[in-house]
Design brief:
The structure is a single chain. With about 200 residues, this protein is mostly beta strands. The protein has 3 helices and 15 strands. The chain has a 5-stranded antiparallel β-sheet, with no helix packed on it. The chain has a 5-stranded mixed β-barrel with strand order 3-4-12-11-8. Strand 5 and strand 6 form a beta hairpin. The longest helix has 13 residues, at about 10-25. The protein is globular and about 45 Å long. The mean pLDDT is about 90.
Length: about 200
C-alpha cells in the first residue's frame, strides 16, 4: 500500500512540476510529507505530453465516510469505482520517496523508500468529484474537486521485507507509456525499478 509519500521541493524536477501545476490551477498545495486528502501535483496526459495539475489525494467513498487512497493493479479494471478510469483517467503521482511501516512484535518501524538519483513516477487514477452540498455562491450549486488514487502492486524483493504491497512505479519513459494507454497487463514489465530503503524512526 501507500499511505504517505514525500515531495522534496528542492528537487529541480519536483519543483518544475509543482510550479507548472500551480499555473494551471491557482490553489495552495502541500509539499514535504504528503498525507491523504492533501492537495498535490499530479501529471495527466496533454496534447504536448504530460501536463501537471493539482489534485486531492483520495476518492470519496460512496457513503461519504472516508476516502480511498489506493487501487490494486490486479483488480482496477473490475472495480466499479476504477474501471472506467483505467482508459480515461490515468495520472502519474511524482514523488521524491514514499513511506511504509514494517510491523514488528510490539511496534511499527517507519521506512523511507526511494530511487538513487531519480524521483518516483507512481501510477495513479484521477477523476472529477462534484459536491452538490458545498454551495460556493448563490449562483453555484456545487463544487468540484479533482481527486486521485495511487495504484499498488505486489512488493518487489527489494522492499517486500517491509510490506507486501508497494506503489506501481515507473521511470520517466515508463510513465509516458502508462499515460499513453499501455495495457494494464503489461505494466509490470516497465516497472522493474530498483529501490533503496532505510528506517527513519
Amino acid at each position: 500500500m501507500c499511505g504517505r509519500y514525500y515531495m522534496d521541493i528542492d528537487d529541480k524536477e519536483i519543483k518544475k512540476i509543482a510550479d507548472e501545476a500551480e499555473k494551471n490551477i491557482y490553489q495552495d498545495y502541500s509539499t514535504g510529507e504528503i498525507f491523504p486528502s492533501d492537495v498535490a501535483p499530479i501529471l495527466v496526459s496533454g496534447q504536448q505530453g504530460p501536463r501537471p495539475i493539482l489534485a486531492k489525494w483520495g476518492f470519496p467513498k460512496w457513503d461519504g465516510k472516508g476516502i480511498i487512497i489506493n487501487a490494486r493493479l490486479e483488480s482496477a479494471e473490475e472495480k466499479q469505482m476504477f474501471k472506467n478510469l483505467v482508459s480515461s483517467g490515468r495520472c502519474i503521482v511524482p514523488a521524491s520517496a514514499y513511506f511504509e511501516w514494517k510491523k514488528e512484535e510490539a511496534s511499527k518501524t517507519k521506512y523511507i523508500i526511494h530511487r538513487d538519483n531519480s524521483i518516483l513516477y507512481m501510477a495513479g487514477l484521477y477523476t472529477a468529484v462534484q459536491h452538490e452540498h458545498r454551495q460556493m455562491s448563490i449562483f453555484e450549486q456545487r463544487d468540484t474537486d479533482i481527486c486521485y488514487t495511487i495504484i499498488t502492486r505486489d512488493a518487489s524483493p527489494s522492499v517486500s521485507f517491509i510490506h507486501n504491497r508497494m506503489p506501481l512505479i515507473f521511470d520517466s519513459s515508463g510513465a509516458k507509456d502508462y499515460l499513453n494507454g499501455r495495457s494494464m497487463d503489461n505494466l509490470l514489465e516497465i516497472s522493474a525499478i530498483s529501490l533503496l530503503s532505510r528506517a527513519v524512526r
